[in-house]
Amino acid sequence: MIRTRTARALLIAIGAALLIFTTGRRASAAPWETKVDPWVLGTAAAGTTEFIVFLTEQADLRAAAGLPDKTQKGAFVFAALVDTAARTQGPLLAQLAALDVEHRAYWVANFIWVRAGADVVQVLAERDDVAHIYANPWVALDIEPQPEGESPAAVEWNILKVNADDVWAAGVTGDGAVIAGQDTGYDWNHPALIGAYRGWNGSSADHGYHWHDAIHSDGGVCGSDSPEPCDDNGHGTHTMGIMVGDDGGSNQIGMAPRAKWIGCRNMDEGVGTPTTYSECFQWFIAPTDLNGQNPDPDMAPHVINNSWACPFSEGCTDPNALKTVVENTRAAGIVVVASAGNSGPNCTTIQDPAAIYEASFTVGSTNNLDQISGFSSRGPVTVDDSGRLKPDVSAPGSAIRSSFPGTGYVNMSGTSMAGPHVAGLVGLLVSAVPELAGQVGDLEDLIEGSAVGLTGVQECGGIPGSQIPNNTFGHGRIDAFAAYEAALLTEVELLIYLPPVFRGP
Q: Residue 410 in contact with residue 145, Cβ under 8 Å?
């Protein structure tokens, strides 16, 4: 596990060398090797490694798009995913048991996590029911919490900038919406977060169905499999504050203060893997009790914030490693918000999962002057040869004041801070128009269509910065009140059964 910058740099250097070596072998690779990530081939040659075995058969979720509401979408997707895994994984699980190697099965996409050596990699890759073997590297956050000076205000500048306070004035503060985050964990009883935590009833806490820990070993100060929300880094607590934070006094830091939040820890001291990210997505589709039993898709959130990335430089050598997982989550009627990344200012720097996917709603970062943050990654997406325009929208991400473990507040910067504004806005829209719950495409279109169009001089992917949308700001900086007003018009259309005017689920 990577614990220091020096260790990380060494691992990246070794990985790069292995990648060059294994890539060079591809010209004469055996057929089974073409199904295996170069990173896996290289690390397995050096000893035991972790990898993800994707089965050939994946669940067909196309029918979910035609279902009328989030409850039905969630139930259908959950049942289809579980059935596909149960029906197809048996022979592979039996072989893994016979090989006596460590493994864990998942259904969020039809795959199995395995820890083993090169001989097992080959045996599995030679199976007809195995489509691909992906890397499962340990990946560090691309920014680390760096507390800056506090600047307390009744309502923070970023919340005012996107006009969330005007939505509150109209009587909509997030009631009825459930917002989720997967991150370094959460300090659930922070004064700005406890009131909105779905596991808190005002006098006691019950964490089942409201919290999951995907870290099953080590775990820093939180340990492993923490039975209650815990944050061993600070990043997660800060992002959740931007979504729902409000201490009932002078710290009004969140977009949707009356929404409820649930959380999943996907990183161990700021370091996660594709498997821990996937495990959180799986849990959000159908949250479970604290024993991981009795999954219930009715307890799923309306939106998930993802302020993390899985870069090529740290072993995520196949950009499609999490694509099916994100698509399946969206099919369940859940908006997947992803931070664009902090590799700007050059073009084509939105290059890491989950921000690169069409199924993700990707967010760039702006400052208090509506200028693009220098660190904010730009599109288009070229790593998968799609040329996809990204980000979708932008939101404030420079010097954002929010909650930090303990009882304090700090300023932090990054697209990690921009994404939660959008997740919070989804909560406000679902609260205002409950019929929008599960209508992912409609929610995304409302936010894009109501954004403040922003332009610049940078041309990326052949799209001038003067054009809207562009690969710097996307459709522009979000405007919560404009989106709210557009949602009210949508409500009228929904109530009188007019044909949908948006792109649909």
A: yes
**Residue 261 exposed, middle or buried by CB count within 10 Å (0-12, 13-18, 19+):** buried
Element (H, E) at 78: helix 70-88
**pTM > 0.85:** yes
Segment 19-47, tens digit of pLDDT: 444 444 445 678 999 999 999 999 999 99
Q: Is 302 a catalytic residue?
A: no
DSSP 434-462: GGGTT-HHHHHHHHHHTSB----S--BTT
| pLDDT higher than 60, residue 473 | yes
The C-alpha atoms of residue 11 and residue 8 are separated, in whole angstroms, by 5
Structure tokens at 72: 């039905």
The active-site residue, picked from 37, 165, 183, 213, is: 183
Which is catalytic among the residues 235, 302, 421, 475?
235
228: its two tokens = 């209650």
Spatial separation of the C-alpha atoms in residues 378 and 461, rounded to whole Å: 10
Mind listing the pLDDT tens digit for each residue in 237-271?
999 999 999 999 999 999 999 999 999 999 999 99
Catalytic residue of the set 360, 365, 398, 416: 416
Concatenate the DSSP letters of all residues of 265-293 into one string: E-EETTEE-HHHHHHHHHHHHS---TTS-
216 flagged as catalytic:
no
Q: What is the pLDDT of residue 492?
A: 63
Distance, in Å, from the CA atom of 256 to the CA atom of 425, rounded to the nearest integer, reads 7
183 is catalytic: yes
Strands (DSSP E) contained in 81-187 are: 102-106, 111-116, 130-135, 139-140, 178-183
Question: What region, left, alpha or beta, does residue 462 occupy, with left being phi > 0 and alpha being psi -120 to 50 degrees?
Answer: left
- What is the pLDDT at residue 314? 85
